[in-house]
Design a protein that fits this description.
By secondary structure, the protein is α/β, with parallel strands linked by helices. The chain has helices at about 20-40, 55-65, 80-100, 115-130; strands at about 10-15, 45-50, 70-75, 105. A four-stranded parallel beta sheet has the order 2-1-3-4, with helices on both faces. The longest helix is centred in the N-terminal third of the chain and has 18 residues, at about 20-40. It is globular and about 50 Å long.
Amino acid sequence: MCAMGKESFDVVILIAHGARDARWMEPFHALRGVLAERLAPKKVALAFMEFAEPTLSDAAAEVTRAGAHHILVAPLFLSGGGHVAKDIPELVEAERLRHPDATFAIAGAIGEEPEVAAGMLEAITRLSMG
């Protein structure tokens, strides 16, 4: 994991777990599309840890081929369990070795960001009111 500072990134790679069911991945593709519009001209890529493509290796190869040098990997997980604490850093380290001219930083689990937690609370509150 990497402490996030005031760094500026060329690219954001969103990384999610992955699933065999394509319907499960639809919200992630939609999120990537909205973020790509919002963050333009920065590139936003999507990767999956398993069961789906593209992999982090695929995404890193694509963005570095396109000239990216400063890459933020943003885990689309609710909490920082084993995948965020261990598996994603290992995957990113492999990409650091494959792409030594690029720098990679890893954000924490997006679900632990205060605005995400607040949004979930608001949604559950609204749903519980009928």
